[in-house]
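Fig. S4 source data, part A: sequence.
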Amino acid sequence: MLTRYVLHIGDVEYPLQDDDLSNWGDVLYTFRRSNYDGVVRSCSSEFVFVNEAREIILKAYLKDRFNAEASISILVLDDRWRYHEVFRCPLNFSTISWDAHTLKINCVDNSLEAIIKANKSTKYEFAIGSEISRDGILAFNRIPMQESLTYQLTQGDEFDDSADIVVYFDRGVLPFIGNTANEIAIAGIMNWNDDQDPDGEPYLFEVTEDIVVDLDYDLEWCTYIRSFGSVTLGVHIDRHGTIVNPSNGGTIARVNNIEITNRNADDSIPSYPDEASMPKMPTGSQSCFATVDGIVYEWKYRDGQYGYCWVSTGKTVYDHFRDSRRGTVRLNLRAGDKVFIDAELTPDHPQVNIRFIRSNFVFKWLGVGRRVDIDVFKPDSIALALLRKMITDDSEVFVEISDYDPRIAGTYLMAAESARGITGAKFYSSFNEFAEWMSAVFGYVYEIIDGVEVHFLHRSELFDKYADINHIELCTNVEYSVDTSVIYSSVTAGYDKKEYGSINGRDEFNFSNTYTTGCSVSDKKLSLISKYRADSYGIEFAVQKRGNDTTDNQSDQDVFFVKCVKVNGMLIPDRSIKINGTLTDSVFNGDFSPMACIRANAGLIGLQADRLELTFASSTGNSEITIGGESMTEDMVVDTPIATCGVVEFTTDEVEPLGEMHELITVTDSDGITYSGYIKEVDVRYAKEEAVRYKLIVKDIKI
């Protein structure tokens, strides 16, 4: 192959002659593709300069010492008979040495590829506004939060061996009810009391705006106690002095004790040593009970020859004499309404005592916070900022992101500190986190063009089945093998699960799904997990922390992203995709679900088979939902592999295809089998006439 080397000293270019370098044959250039990404180029060599090239470099060093700048570029002649640069490497003047005839110097691998490799895991911080400028403002119209107040009957006689409580209800007096739990994130909707105290605040809470509240009640009590009568519990509304009842009249439950006709003088159920000693009761007697060894017997009619007799219930007094009620009452409240619970006694009882096993009154409603504005950034702005942080000199660098995936156009990123409204908010990220996000969510990888441009594009664009084809005629030692590193038994896609400490967090779906592939020859697992977050509840909870002085070490450095639309010139979350099975229809980012991550990476996942069935195994999020009609627990099929899991190696004298990294290369072995594939690995000594060993990712095989 016709090649040309050029020495660059400042702005001067000097084409190297055959006698300018004494070790032409040792200069090695490597082209490698890892993880089915873009091809990375590197140079590993010591240059030994002689003659005029030695004098030029020595003169540059003596003039500027370590400030001297020099590099070598390699150009190859393409099929149009034009030279184009395929590689450039700077020289490292800290390695310079010379004698009377030679000057030795290493190349410094400070190419953009090397800079990214060395610094991609470093997390950088950017001061928003000074080091990185926003691309827009997200008008975050909030997610309704399910909030609650829980009350119980808390005043009465307690037991040493039981959590039961005997509550005394007096005619005309509101019962004492205490608050036992609350979950309120959106302040200002409720002014609530710790208890409903007939001698203090005779209500549970007051609302400050019109709102719908549901009361879920759950009561269980003993029906046998040394007290007769019943109590009807009800919930009511005090509307500026006027008592208003809900649509059902406000009745919660009628709580009653039963009257037992055959009690002893000590007002208890009679007990006998055995069934034989139990007396006969009058025919047709009602509410007749007795106990033997603590087990309750009823006097009741039995068909057949038995007639009326004692029949065992198999239960103790405590288990047999109990009743329960559950239900929901809806309260349509107006601003200023006060809610209370009262107790109405049967007319002939001034006091009724009830032994409660449990008494829960849970008031639930949806609270919505006020809209907040959050600084947001386009993906290419973040990528460019990261690259400029990694490059310590003034070298130019450019970023381009393909529009292959239409979601990219509406995607914006935000810092957790911006969501929290922290003064002097910073954006934290490493290049690796950005690249892994692009890969996991969009199926994008990056390649470096001309040493100054970073292109993010979908793998389907890198492995283009319609790419130009180069057939290598002269090849020997063709060997085919299977790349077992891309054969997986399971695939996990999505995001790390976050613990919110709120019941609303159970509604979040954008965590991760795991699928099995049915493969039994490998236990390898593919993980497509993004460190950037798509959980809409995570953004809501971050916003709720506005005004808090404390920091959250676990999440303040997080990065969120949102698919947005413009409405009246404002960016708002895109809620166009229908999400069912959640507490509210205000959640968003359904476009970035774990299933969407699977589809974006179908070409990579499917390397092991043309058609691969993924069986749903588990989800770390809310798996009860559907997104765009698709259930979170549905199995999936991927049938668009970018290549196969095969690798073919061969030896050839032809290296010209390296001028175009995306070409589809074909070779035919001695048996007439033709392999087509993409570059995986090549080592080249351009200036030395020797065979080159190729390794290709196989796209297709034709026999």
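Fig. S4 source data, part B ends here. The chain has three domains: 3-118, 123-141+371-456+495-606, 146-258+321-367.
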